[in-house]
Write a structure and sequence with these properties.
With 571 residues, the chain is an all-beta fold. It has three helices and 43 strands. Strands 27, 30, 33, 36, 37 and 38 form a six-stranded mixed beta sheet that branches. It has a four-stranded antiparallel beta sheet with strand order 6-7-8-9, with no helix packed on it. The protein has a four-stranded antiparallel beta sheet with strand order 10-11-12-13. Bound molecules: copper (II) ion (CU). The site of copper (II) ion has 4 residues, from loops.
Amino acid sequence: MDVDSNTFCAGGGVLGNGTWVVFGGNQPVTTDGIAVADEGAYHNTDGGTAIRMINPCDDESCEYIQGETSYDISSPDTGGWLQMTGRRWYPMVEALEDGSLIIIGGDKNGGYVNTAAQDNPTYEFFPPKGDGQAINLQFLSDTLPVNLYALTWLMPSGKLFMQASRKSILYDWKTQTTTNLPDMPYATRVYPASAATAMLPLTPDNGFTPTILFCGGSNPPQWGNDGTAGYNVTAVPTDNTCVRISPDDANPKYDDDDYMFEGRSMGQFVYLPDGTMWMGNGINMGTAGYGNDHYSVGQSYGQDPVYMPAIYNSSAPLGGRWNRTGLTASDNERMYHSTAILLPDSSILISGSNPNADFTNEQWRSRTDVEKWFPWYYNETRPVFSNPPANLSYGGDSWNVSLGNITDEPTVQSAKVVVIRGGFNTHAIGFGQRYLVLNSTYTIDMNTNESTLHVSQMPGDVGPFVFQPGPAMVFLVVNGVPSEGEFVMVGSGQLGEQPTSANSALPSSQVVAVTPTETASESNANASSESSSSSSSNTSGAARGVIASSGAVVGVASVLVAVVGGALVVF
Ligand SMILES: [Cu+2]
C-alpha cells in the first residue's frame, strides 16, 4: 500500500460511504528534511495538494487511490479530481452531516507556526461542492500565526465550532456567517501548543448535546515564525488547565473543569468503551515542533516526556474526574509525531514519536515501535454481543440484544450499547473521534432467567450532525466491561442527505416476575438471586508493553493511523 506523495503533516477523515481520505502534507524532501523539487532519496512526490483514498477491503487487495486518478468520474456530483485547490500542510478535516468532508486551512510549505505569506486561509469540500473552488474564511487570517490544524467540530445546529489562537467561533458554512464566541482562557490549545481535545461522550442523559473539552497546551511569551520558535521554548512549562464549552448553548462559555495532574502538551484523548477517556503521550516542557536551535533538545522543541497516562471521567462529579488508579508509566516517550487509537479489543495502540527533521537515534530519537495499553477490564470476562447490527439508521425501529442469563437488576441497568468512531489520529488530534451511547431499556424475565436490552437506533433528529455517517465500532458494555467491538455502518452507507425519522418508543424497563402455571414448573428461578457478574467498576491493573518493533522507517515520519474495517491503516 504505497503512498506516492509526502503525507508528512497531513489531515484526514472518513467519508459517509466508508472511504478513508488523507489530505495535503509536505513538499518532497530528501535526507535531513531538505525540500527537493524531484523525488529525492525518499521517493516521495509533492503532498501539498494531494488527496489519497482507501476503500477498506477484506482480502489485502487494498491500494491507495491517488495522483490524478478521478474520484468517481461517472458520478458528476462527486467531483473528478484528486488534487485540492491549494497547498495544505496541517489542514483540519471534519465530516459534515451528508458524509462529505470539509478541509480547512493549512499553510503552503510548513513551519513552526504559520505566516501571512504561507497561509492558505480557505476551506474546500471533498467531494467538491458547488464550483469546487476554495472559500475564504476570515477566522483563519484572524488567528495567525497559530491557526494550523484549527480545531473544528460539527454542531447540531449545522454550524462548525472552531477554535484557534485564543479565538472561538461558530461558522455557518451554508450561509458563510460567523458568530464570535468567548476567547479561550489560560492557554493556546491548537498546534504547536497542542492541547488534548475531545467531544465528551454523547448520551441520552445529556440529550446528545456536544461539549468540547480542552486540556493542556501552552502559554508562551511569543510565537516565532515559520522558521523558528525564536526563544527558548523548551524552558516554558506546559499548561495543566482543562476547560469545557457547549458551543450550541444560548450563551456558550468556557467553564473550568478539573485540571490535570501535570501540565501537558501533545496529550491525546482516546475514548474507552466504558465511557471514560484515556489521556496519554506528550510532554511537560515546551511545545510541538522542532528546529536546529541552541535551545532545542537535539532538535526537539519539547522535553520532559509525560510517561504516565491518566483517565478522565466526564460524568464524575467536579473534583473527581481524573484518576490514575492502578495505572503504570510507560517506558517509552511519545512526543511530537506520536499517536494513539482505540482497537476493537478495547486496548489502545500507541505509536511513533519523532521531533526531528529525519530519522535519528539521537535524543529525542525517532521511535519506530508501537505499544499497546490495556485497560482495567481487558482480562475480565467480556460480555458477548451476540447479534451486533451491521447498520444503524438515524431514527427508526429499536432492536434487541440478549444479555443471556444475567438477571441481577443493577447489572442489567448498567448495560449499554455504545458507538465509537476512533477517527483519524495524528499530532495528538483525533479527527472525527466520537462516542455515543444509544438509548436503551431492558426486560428481565424471571420465568426464563434471561434479560433483553431494547436499543434505539442513532438519534433521528440530531444524529447526522453529532455522529456523522460512516463506519464506527459498536460495543455492548455491562458493568463497564465491553464486548469485542464490531464494525457497523452508521447512516445509509452513501454520501448525501441522510434519511432520518423519529426513534420508535422503547418498551418500559421491567422485571417480569415468575408466573405460577398449571404445568409443573421446573423453574429453579430464585427471584432474589444475585448474579455472579463482576461488580468491580473502578480502574485497577493496567499494563503496557512494547509488542512490535518495525525496522521500516521513512525519511520523515509523522504517524497517522485509523482503524479501518477491523484493520489498522498507517498512512
Ligand atoms: Cu507534523
